[in-house]
């Protein structure tokens, strides 16, 4: 889990490179980001889904 969208994207790019997928192409379908392989444009590698994080003492919405 990452606390910012930018760090999540950087993490995805790092793990895609380590996994041998190379560079990724991003598509945004608000609010979710999709990372596809550049070499195989149909291969979905990762999804970055924003979540709301609350502290234990925060009131319920």
Could you describe the 3D structure shown?
The structure is a single chain. The two termini are 22 Å apart. The relative contact order is 0.20. With 61 residues, the chain is an alpha+beta fold. It has one domain (5-48). It has one helix at 5-18; strands at residues 24-29, 32-37, 44-48. The chain is elongated and about 45 Å long.
Q: Order of strands side by side in the largest beta sheet?
A: 1-2-3
Uncertain stretches: none
Number of DSSP helical runs: 1
| Ends distance | 22 Å
Helix and strand run: HEEE
> How many strands in all?
3
Which structural class fits the helix and strand makeup?
alpha+beta
* Overall form: elongated
Mean pLDDT: 90
Biggest β-sheet description = 3 strands, antiparallel
The helix content, as a percent range, equals 10-25%
How many domains, in number, for the residues? 1
Secondary structure topology:
Blueprint: H1 5-18, E1 24-29, E2 32-37, E3 44-48
Antiparallel strand pairs: 1-2, 2-3
Structure keywords:
61 residues, 3-stranded antiparallel beta sheet, 1 helix
Compact overview of the structure:
The protein is of the alpha+beta class. 23% of the residues lie in helices and 28% in strands.
